[in-house]
Write a sequence for this structure.
């Protein structure tokens, strides 16, 4: 469900780099002939204030146009079926602060407090080589050209796991907002489990992708403050804690039991489907808010 608009944003940067690479480079010394007498720079015979005003007006008009396009593509406040089902039926509360790239899920499970943190940066900070090129696929180029201002619809390609564990890519039907139930990018999770009356905490480093939560490692911290350090001393102490072996190197039966332990606490397929889709939903919402904020600043 990673939006084509996200791919399109990288296209101008790529084109700019190519243009820069092909532009001949000349020495500043070579451009100035040694015999040419020094000439005093000419002073502008007109005011530049009107030109600056026109530039601001053009920028404001472009921001307005971009916002209108995005608004026509999707309704940023409307949840897809996947998001709505999770929010209404999951025991987790969604904590989403406007203007922030971070989102938190939290719940109580018996005497435990479970917190799941993720971020929209997993879209905007994906390595360029992992992002599909905006014009590598003719179909994507057609979609790009069909939109004005470089915006694109939220078409998506979903991944699914086959019986033998391999990943299979196939098209997925979308709902009325153009969203599907699965996405094509990994969402990194920081999961913390604390028990009432105990100082320690478990911290799980995991990835939500392809309707599954894949565990990378499990940390045990004797002091729960180390799970989310707020000061340099705690951060320094955290670095010296033994992290445990990579999850995939554990005994297979132990892996199965640990996975069941986390599944019982709601870290399951429904969450794995929800998080990447919510990231895309929030990124779209924050992008539209960003357009409005920049316009307001320029217009003031």
């Amino acid at each position: 469900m990673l939006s084509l608009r996200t791919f399109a944003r990288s296209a101008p940067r790529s084109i700019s780099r190519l243009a820069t690479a092909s532009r001949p480079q000349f020495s500043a010394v070579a451009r100035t002939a040694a015999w040419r007498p020094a000439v005093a720079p000419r002073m502008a015979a007109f005011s530049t204030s009107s030109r600056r005003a026109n530039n601001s007006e053009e920028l404001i008009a472009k921001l307005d146009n971009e916002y209108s396009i995005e608004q026509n593509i999707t309704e940023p406040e409307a949840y897809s079926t996947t998001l709505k089902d999770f929010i209404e039926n999951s025991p987790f509360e969604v904590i989403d602060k406007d203007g922030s790239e971070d989102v938190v899920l939290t719940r109580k499970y018996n005497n435990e407090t479970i917190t799941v943190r993720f971020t929209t940066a997993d879209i905007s900070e994906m390595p360029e080589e992992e992002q599909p090129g905006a014009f590598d696929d003719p179909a994507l180029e057609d979609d790009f050209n069909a939109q004005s201002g470089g915006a694109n619809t939220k078409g998506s390609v979903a991944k699914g796991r086959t019986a033998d564990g391999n990943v299979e890519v196939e098209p997925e039907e979308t709902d009325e907002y153009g969203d599907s139930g699965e996405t094509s990018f990994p969402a990194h999770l920081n999961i913390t489990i604390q028990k009432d009356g105990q100082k320690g905490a478990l911290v799980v480093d995991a990835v939500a992708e392809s309707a599954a939560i894949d565990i990378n490692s499990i940390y045990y911290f004797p002091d729960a403050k180390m799970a989310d350090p707020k000061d340099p001393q705690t951060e320094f102490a955290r670095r010296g804690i033994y992290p445990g072996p990579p999850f995939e190197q554990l005994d297979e039966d132990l892996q199965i039991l640990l996975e069941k332990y986390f599944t019982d606490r709601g870290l399951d397929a429904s969450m794995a489907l929800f998080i990447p889709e919510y990231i895309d939903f929030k990124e779209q919402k924050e992008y539209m808010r960003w357009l409005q904020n920049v316009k307001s600043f320029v217009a003031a």
In short: The two ends are 36 Å apart (CA to CA). The domain at 81-128+186-291 is CATH 3.10.280.10 (Mitochondrial Matrix Protein; Chain A). Residues 269-299 form the longest helix (31 residues).
